[in-house]
Amino acid sequence: MDLRHSFDKTPNWAFLVFFAAITLVLYFNALGYPFLFDDIYLIPDNQFVKSFSLGKIFSSDVFYFNSKAGYDFNDSYYRPLQLLSYAFEYRIWNLNPVGYRLDNILLHAANAFLLFWVIFSIFKNKLLAFLSAVFFCIHPAQVCLVTFISGRSNLLETFLTLSSLAVFIRWLSAKKAAYYLFSLSLFIAALLTREGAVLLIFYQAVSLFCLKEKRKAFFSLLPYCFIAFIYFSLRKIFMPCGRLSFGNLLGWRSLFDFLFYSQSYFWQLIFPLNIKEAVFSYPASKAFFYLVSSVMFIIISLWAAIKRNRTVIFALFLFFAGLLPVVGLGGLIRYMGPVLSEHYAYNASLGFCLLLAYSCLVFFKNLDLILKVVIAAICSYFLILTVSVNRYYKSEVSFYRYALSMGESNKIARLNLGNAYYKEGDFDSALREAKVLIESNPRIWDFYLLAGNAYKEKGELSLAYDQYQKALALNPHSYLLYNNLGNIYKLQGKYDQALEAYERSYSASKNPVVLANIIRLLIDRREFDKAWAACEEALENSGDKAGELVNIGIYWAQAGYSQQAEILFKEALRIDPQSYQAMQNLAFLFGNKNDFDQAIFYVKSALKVKPDDRYLKAVSERLTSLKKRKIK
């Protein structure tokens, strides 16, 4: 029995199960990886996600809070459904990255199945559809999106776009209005995930051509075009998240960038990234390979047009249309480097994998054994590379070292590497990276921020102060800098200046971390009325009210005001009965007052929430021992 016949007999649901299984196995080790890169900005640092602020999610760019910090994110990343997905997940997973990354893995598997379904629906060849989807599913270029939780926008966009296309194709045969309306709804949802979803209209057009639909069927695309026009008009004119600029999409530079990066990403989909960067580091070799691939694409395109080979036309169209979003982004791609910008190849890889699968089936059409060997070799190649690349994402330090190894001049990778060292407590390494960055470009404010943070932790407060002042001269609107200056003033005993810096930071950002610093300072200054007023504001504005109550309660307990702390911890428990932090701190409070019955009650309650916590077990044993001594 040949391969094609055996696949024709396999039910479609079995393919969905297969893609889910292989993706889970391939990325299972990534479930335990921490938040990386933009993940931190979009989830732990995003108060709209924590508070489930629906109005803010739909009226702000995804980097709203980081723009307040002084970072320039162009204020045009409108991704409300991406943030909405995080907001739902936060209710379940809190800040545990496992759940968020699991959803990414399942979305990628679903995209592989949708690619299978679309190809099979158009070309009626299950083996071709299956091979295309498998290559897409296991390709190493997908690691960045599946492993970065922030890759959700691309994954969700592709899922909704392919879903809309699949339902549209179903409507073409069933002609039921419900299918058409559902496809339109999915298109709107896709646009609210990412503007690249407008590519659906191009995918529909080429699908109509491949399905040999009559010309009048193309009129069915007009409502999609109208929706896209309304969306982009709003983005251009009004959207509170920021306005899209279309001026940079036209011109010779944009055309050159598109042609250049279409060849660059093509070879990136063939070679391991480290080999590609090594080979293409020589201008002559880069020119040679790009010339070869350009000529190859021209020949294939002409042959497909002459032969009216709809499969090849569809594959080429998916590849080049999938890269249209890079138009005008040449500067950003060069700034981010090959690793951080690899996600732009995700949609293009749909066409690449279809073309690769079709080539295998055509070249080895009557050589079943050789075909199996070739497919096994390609799959093994992709799997090995995917597993190899995936291991770099296990920590921030290993990932940014990997990104930096692909280009020593990559400033964003070096800056993030320095920040990763800082988080791990390796302040000397963080300072070393900051000095390299400042020397390379002394006009970037966050290079000085990193240096100041490292000096502060090393206890060199005057040097930290100088670095923060240099950063402020370049970016006087960053609340982070004023907050960090407040920390320096506080450590120097300059409480008035510290309070002034904190208040200036909070007025610019309304950031709860800054407000917590104000509360702590007011408690230290014994200005309890002002501290309570600040506490009430924190509770009113916090997205995580139970967590804020616990933090504020700890401040009061440290100041020796256990009664106020007890009230706050109990209120936290009322809001969140599963807050083991509140239970743990109540156990400490009652233990310090020798009320061991209450202390043991709360620590046992905490153990019910976290039964494997060794620290809580040790506290429980200690309290039980102290209670026995008291009885004796």
What does this structure look like?
The protein is mostly helical. It folds into 2 domains: 3-394, no CATH class; 410-476, Tetratricopeptide repeat domain (Serine Threonine Protein Phosphatase 5, Tetratricopeptide repeat, Alpha Horseshoe), CATH 1.25.40. It is built from 35 helices and no strands. Helix 7 (80-93) packs across helix 8 (97-123). The mean pLDDT is 86.
Q: What does the largest sheet look like?
A: none
Note the overall shape. globular
Unreliable runs: none
**Termini separation (Å)?**
83 Å
Class derived from helix and strand content: mainly alpha
Percentage beta strand: under 5%
Quickly count the domains: 2
Count of DSSP H/I helices = 35
Number of strands: 0
Helix content: over 70%
Q: What's the gyration radius in Å?
A: 28 Å
Overall pLDDT confidence: 86
Overview features:
mainly alpha; 35 helices; 2 domains; 632 residues; Serine Threonine Protein Phosphatase 5, Tetratricopeptide repeat
Write the layout of secondary structure elements.
Blueprint: H1 3-8, H2 12-27, H3 38-42, H4 47-51, H5 54-59, H6 64-68, H7 80-93, H8 97-123, H9 126-138, H10 143-147, H11 152-174, H12 177-191, H13 199-210, H14 222-237, H15 252-268, H16 273-279, H17 283-307, H18 310-322, H19 330-340, H20 346-363, H21 368-390, H22 396-405, H23 411-423, H24 427-440, H25 445-457, H26 461-474, H27 479-491, H28 495-509, H29 512-524, H30 528-541, H31 545-558, H32 562-575, H33 580-592, H34 596-609, H35 614-631
Helix pairs in contact: 2-8, 2-9, 7-8, 8-9, 8-11, 9-20, 9-21, 11-12, 11-13, 12-14, 13-18, 15-17, 17-18, 18-20, 22-23, 23-24, 23-25, 24-25, 25-26, 26-27, 27-28, 28-29, 29-30, 29-31, 30-31, 31-32, 31-33, 32-33, 33-34, 34-35
